[in-house]
Design brief:
CATH architecture of the largest domain in chain A: Orthogonal Bundle
Organism (chains A, B): Actinoplanes auranticolor
Helix content of chain A: 55-70%
InterPro entries (chains A, B): Homeodomain-like_sf, HTH_TetR, TetR_C_31
Oligomer: homodimer
GO molecular function, one term (chains A, B): DNA binding
CATH class of the largest domain in chain A: Mainly Alpha
Keywords (chains A, B): DNA-binding
Number of helices of chain A: 9
Number of domains of chain A: 2
Strand content of chain A: under 5%
Shape of chain A: elongated
Protein name (chains A, B): HTH tetR-type domain-containing protein
Chain lengths: 202, 202
DNA sequence: TATGGCGTTCTACAGACGTAGAAGGGTGGC
DNA sequence: GCCACCCTTCTACGTCTGTAGAACGCCATA
């Protein structure tokens, strides 16, 4: 219960996220977190005694960063009106995806690892927060656009966009896809998202 | 090098896949595989001495099962003609997804875990070829349908469909989504896939 | 200056893990 | 009937991991 220094706590969880991204869940150990964070051995164990606590802290941290991230990226103004500017929206979503593939790649990798872990550990459900937020935004958009079945379509839309993200992340389509961070990739992603948006509102 | 009994080998890799699905990559150990397969302790270690070999065998097995699975599910006849029956195709894709969420859930979970693992272990990448096969089919379809940018759109399509699968698997959309295996789920998936197909060919 | 509390750092330990090699046992050739 | 071979099974061992608790040092108070 020695949760006294917030920056120390943040350093630990960030180190844990980096480890998960680099080595997978298997690489997440108390000692590795200490080393990665540059803190004396035993620190992670003192702050988060059990491994469960460690994983839960990671999930909470990712969820917090995600919601903060999504909050700063508001949907472009004028988009949720009756005649939404789908192209502009597609661009901004593509930019988000590209960010999550480059600067935010670490967190994205860790998030998917936790998502998989949450399959058999319901207490990790907070990791789903980003999806919930995105779904809400999508459903609001589709409702405003007057699309039928906004709830269902919004959910499908988010899932499909998530698929694009995972695809680029895992390199499944690496044969033809441009590397993340390049203008081509953003353009390619924007084209894909544009198609998805158009289909959702039609 | 004692790879003598094929059914023993298959039992080991299947047990390994089940373990990954249940406990994640962290649960994949030689001893756990032995126990799960009901074979004497030390068997997995004898067949697949290093952990790397164990993981690679798992990946290979998943890839084999995937390609065998996809080979039996041929695209419905008359679909790749000039006027493809998108609704029928959507139905059959939805059926595949639903199968992979129920009967094939174990393998689906293990596949995503391996996909994530392949991110930092390139030697695992070439073996996970299920996406390649699906992409080829999608691109052939779109080409036949006369869609522009068939290659790019086919890739996006597969990624989006994969997103639907992962979404249902991880329960991200569990708030509103019907449980896998039910007719509602198949119908819901079919609706989503239909939208994606229509957008891809337009 | 002494003292008490509290956050930090270190040490301990049991169990699990990866890996290697020895022991065991059954089968085919001679 | 005997032997050699090879697959299987068992044992060994050094390392890593999770978890606990003791030792330490710092700061505030008296």
């Amino acid at each position: 219960m020695a949760t006294t220094s917030p920056e120390r706590f943040a350093a630990l969880t960030d180190a844990a996220i980096a480890l998960i991204a680099e080595l997978g869940m298997r690489g997440l150990t108390h000692r590795a977190v200490d080393a990665r964070a540059g803190l004396p051995a035993g620190t992670a164990s003192a702050y988060l005694r059990t491994r469960k606590a460690l994983v839960e802290a990671v999930v909470q941290r990712i969820a917090d960063l995600d919601t903060a991230d999504l909050a700063t990226r508001r949907v472009p103004t004028g988009v949720v009106e009756a005649a939404p500017d789908l192209d502009a929206l597609a661009e901004s979503i593509a930019a988000l995806l590209d960010d999550w593939l480059t600067a935010g790649r670490t967190r994205t990798l860790a998030r998917y690892a936790c998502l998989l872990e949450a399959t058999h550990h319901p207490e990790l459900r907070p990791i789903l927060a980003y999806g919930v937020a995105m779904r809400a935004q999508a459903q609001a958009l589709l409702t405003a656009a007057g699309a039928p079945d906004a709830e269902q379509r919004g959910s499908h839309l988010v899932a499909a966009v998530d698929g694009l993200l995972f695809d680029r992340l895992a390199g499944a389509g690496s044969l033809a896809a441009p590397p993340p961070g390049t203008p081509q990739n953003r353009a390619d992603l924007a084209a894909a998202v544009r198609g998805l948006l158009r289909a959702a509102v039609s």
